[in-house]
Amino acid sequence: MRFYRGARSTVRGLLPKGSDTVLEALDLAKRYGPVTALDGFSLKAVPGEIVGLVGHNGAGKTTFVEIVTALTRPDGGSVTIDGKAPGKAKGLVGVAPQHLGLYPSITVREHLELFGRLAGLRKVALAAAIEELGVALRLGEIMDRRTGALSGGQQRRTQAATALINNPPLLLLDEPTAGADQETRQAMLDVVKQRAGEGAAVVYTTHYLPELTELQATIAVIRAGRVIARGTYEELVDGLPGEVHACFEDAEDVRISTNDPTKTLIELLATTKQPITSVEVRNADLDDLYRSLAVGRDT
Ligand SMILES: Nc1ncnc2c1ncn2[C@@H]1O[C@H](COP(=O)(O)OP(=O)(O)OP(=O)(O)O)[C@@H](O)[C@H]1O
Q1: Ligand 1 pocket test: which of 36, 38, 43, 63 has the largest number of ligand atoms within 8 Å of its C-beta?
Q2: What is the pLDDT of residues 237-248, one digit of tens each?
Q3: How far apart are the C-alpha atoms of 139 and 161, rounded to whole Å?
Q4: What InterPro entries is this protein classified in (predicted)?
Q5: CA within 20 to 30 Å of 294's CA: 125, 127, 199, 244, which one?
Q6: Residues 67-82: tens digit of each pLDDT
């Protein structure tokens, strides 16, 4: 146990000291020929914050992740990681790309050793980090199997572990639970919460909105290459209408979209002459947020 604690403090030494902002993107622009992928994209993330990026297919989420990881250059704007340009932020960023990119002929352990060494971990710290992730991401039983022979969910967990191996101050997780079963999803969410609790800033893209509630993420809504809204779940959902759904004995059901479902129900009960067989009152939720995005979809 002492060995484990000592190694952890070495790993944690990578977190930024006295830094308010881990990630700062300002007015990013990126075009691919006629396609505008990013257009005035700005985003900040501070230590301990989980920022959930949501938006439709093609909104620009992956392009942003690729710029932060120096896989592609922006046409305009700037991005810094703990004050450094993307190409100079070695060891500061852990990235789990949307598409799986593992070496099929080497084992899970060999992946973790490789990525850990590339990030500067050695011996005791590396062994401790592998042991910790083996438990956190339930990799123990598959640690010495070749990744080419693993299931999709097992490969997802392995890829996430390569991003987390050196406990970097910034984590970019691009749809880390895509296609994952409940066990993989929960393991991923638990480890993300744990790392944020330890001070990492996390950018987490997903189409599964309930994950962001569980992560208590601040949500950044992306549309057509820019952040169009940012806030907590409550802040974003509060302004959206809920619904009253009433069923009548001798008439068609009615669904009323309303900012005050309780008041609307009282008015309905006071004015309707038809016998009502059932009513459902629903406040706005994240699905409504997503639907409201679809209404204004222009990509
Ligand atoms: N290498 C590329 N060449 C040409 N167009 C590209 C390239 N990469 C992205 N695009 C285009 O840029 C836009 C933004 O794509 P991006 O992958 O960033 O969206 P996304 O929000 O991550 O989508 P998804 O939710 O489907 O992953 C899309 O119109 C896409 O077709």
Answers
A1: 63
A2: 887 888 999 999
A3: 9
A4: AAA+_ATPase, ABC_transporter-like_ATP-bd, ABC_transporter_ATP-binding, P-loop_NTPase
A5: 244
A6: 999 999 999 999 999 9
Distance 230 CA to ligand 1 centre (A): 21
Query: Which pLDDT does position 19 carry in this prediction?
Result: 57
Torsion of CA 138, 143, 149, 155, to 10 degrees: 40
Residue 167 contacts by C-beta under 8 Å, 6 or more apart in sequence? 11, 12, 14, 15, 129, 195, 198, 200
CA–CA distances in Å: residue 255 to residues 214, 268, 277: 29, 11, 14
The closest-lying atom of ligand 1 relative to the alpha carbon of residue 72 is 1
Q: What's the token pair of residue 138?
A: 């339930």
Confidence at 8, pLDDT banded by 50, 70, 90? very low
Among candidate residues 9, 25, 31, 55, the one with its CA nearest the CA of residue 299:
55
Please give the backbone phi and psi of residue 39, each rounded to the nearest 5 degrees, phi first: -150, 90
- Cα 228 to middle of ligand 1, angstroms: 18
Separation of CA 64 and ligand 1 centre (Å): 10
* Residue among 56, 62, 174 to mutate when testing ligand 1 (max atoms within 8 A of CB): 62
Q: Identify the helix (H) or strand (E) that includes residue 38.
A: strand 35-45
Rounded distance, CA 106 to CA 111, Å? Answer: 7
ipTM for the complex shown: 0.97
